[in-house]
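Fold it.
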Amino acid sequence: MAYKANPFLERMAERSTSDHEFVRQFSPRVLDQLPENAFDPGIHVFRSAPGGGKTTLLRAFTPSVLRAFWNASSRRTTDLSESLQRLVARGAIAEDSGPAVLGIFLSCSSGYADLPPAAQLAQEGTFRALLDCRVVLRTLRSVATITGIAPDALHQIRLAYPPEAEFQAIPRAESADDLYKWAESLEQGVYAQLDGLVSGTEIMSHVRFESLLWLQAIKFYVGGQLVSQRPLLMLDDLHALRRRQRALLIDEFISSRPQLLVWLAERRIAMGDELLSEGAREGRELMYHSLEEMWGGTKGPHHFAGFAQNVLDRRLRLQDVVEAGSFSQCLQEESSTRELEERIVAGIDAFRKSASRFQGNARYTEWLDRAARIMLQPNRDAVVDLYVTRILLSRQEGRKQLSLELALSAKTLEELDSSQVRAAAEIFLHEEVGLPYYFGIDRLCQMATTNIEELLFLSASLFVGIQAKQILRNPEPLLTPVEQEKLIKEAVTKKRQFIPKNHSEGLRAQRLLDGIAAHCRDRTFLPNAPYAPGVTGVRLSQTHMESLVSQSEGMTEKRGVLRRVLTECAAENLLVPRSSQESTSREGGTVFYLNRSLCAYYDLPLQYGGWQDVSVADLMEWMERGPAAARQRQRGLV
C-alpha cells in the first residue's frame, strides 16, 4: 500500500481517491447524526458550507463504495466492522446479502450552467433533456456495478415497466444496452446542437423531468432475477446550477410527488438572502437538513468531537512515519513547568501589580493571603487561580459599597469561582503573558467549527510538526502546547490572509471580521470579565435584521453590500449565525459568531454564548473601515 506523506491534505470527495481508500477513511459516525426521516421517500436537501461533508456523505452510498464496504467486511477489521454496522442500521446494506440501496450519483457542476440562457422554454427543455439522459446513463452504470456486470455487458440487464407507466421522451426499451445507446446519443445530440446553435434551430427538449418518473417505475432483471436494491437518486453541487435551473428542478420534483428517495446537496451560498432571513420552503415532499445544525444541541459538540477524532485517527493510519494509535496521542495536553517558567513568573508579577491596590484593605485579607500561599508553588494551575482571584477582586471592587461590609472569606472566593471565570482567566493569561491556550485535541475539534475540511486543514499543519519531530528523532516526540499553538497560529493566519482571494466580497468580509473581532476583544478583556469567558459574536435584533433583508426602494447601496457580505460570510463558515430568542427585556434576533479558528487568530476564547448587540450602522462602518472604526465607536469617538 502507498502511504501518504501528509494524509490530512487529501480530500475524500475527490474522485482520485479510490473506493478502497475511501472506505478506510470514511467515519461512519456521521450516519448517527442524520435525522431518521432522511431515509424516508421524498426530496431531501442537504446544506453546508464548503467542506462540510456533503459530497463525502453522498459518495458513501454509491454502488462501488457500498460494495467496497461489503467486500472489506469479510476481513472483519474493527474500523470496517463499525462502518458496516452503521450502514446496516441505516438500511444501506443487508447483513446477509450486501448493498440494499441503488445509489445514482450525479454532479450538477458538469455543464448544466453552460446551457445558454436562450428562450425560456427552450432552455428549460434542454436542461430537462440533459438531466434525464444523464440520470438514465448513471442508473444503468449503477445497476451494472451493483450486480457485478462488466460495463460492456449491459445487454445482460433486462428492463420491465408497469402497464400504466407512460413516458413521452424516454423510450420503453427492454434492453439496457439499447436504452444506454439512446441516452448517450441524446447527450451527444444536445451538445452538438448547442455547439452549432443558430437562430431557428430546434433544440432537443423535454417538457418535464421524466427520469424521476422513469426511475420510480422501472424494474431491472439480471439472469431472470429482480435487482431488489431500492433507488437513491443523489444530485450533488446543486449550487452550481443557475438560480432559475435550481428553482425549476426543485419545483418540478416536488410536483411529481416522488415515492422514491432523492438527496440533493448544495452549499449554503445557494440560499442567497434566505440565509439571513431563514426562509425555507419545506413540507412533506421537501425536507432540508443542515449538516452544521446536525451537530447542534446540548450533545452536539461532544458528538462532533468523537466524529472528528475518528476521522483524524483513520487518516493517521494512512502514513508510516508517526507511530501512534490515535492523533490525540501525538499532542501533549500539559506543558512542563520548566517550559512555561518565564510566562508563569510574568503572570505572577502581573497579579502582584494589579492586586497591590487592595493591600491593607481588611475586606480582602483572606483572599490575598490565599494568593500569597499559591505563589509559593508556581505552576500553570497556580497562576490560573491567581487570575481567577484578580477577576473576582475586580468584580467586588466594582460593586456599590455598603457602609458596613464584612471581610470576604476564602470560602466565598471558592463559591464565586466557576468554569466560566476560570476560562476567562486562561484567555487573560494567554493575552497578557502568552500562556498557551489553543492546544489539545478538544480545542482542535472546537476550532474546526463543525467543518471537516477545516479540521483537516488545521490537523495538516500539526502533522507537519509531529512528522518533523519523528524524523529528527527528537527526545520529546509529542507536540508541546507551545508548539501546537505556534502551528495553529500559522495556519489560521493563512486562512485570514486568503479571505480576500477566496471570496467575491473578500476584502470587505475581512474588514468586517476584523471589526467584529476588535469589538469582541474590547468586551472580552475588561478587568472584571463581565461576559466570561468572553465575547465572540455580535447580535442584530429582529428589527435590524428585517431592515437589512428588506428589498424596499429606500434600501441604500451600502446596506445591500452589507447584506451580500454577511450572506457570504455565513455561507462560507466565516460567521456562524444562530437565532436568539426573545425575552421580557429584549426582542429576538440573530447572533453572528466568529468562526472558531478565526477566534484563534484574534486571540479570543472558543466557547459560544458571549455576544453583544450592535446595529446595522455599526456593521456597515466596520465593513468599510475595519477595526479602527470598531475601536473608535467603542471609545465614543464616532
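The chain has 26 helices and 14 strands.
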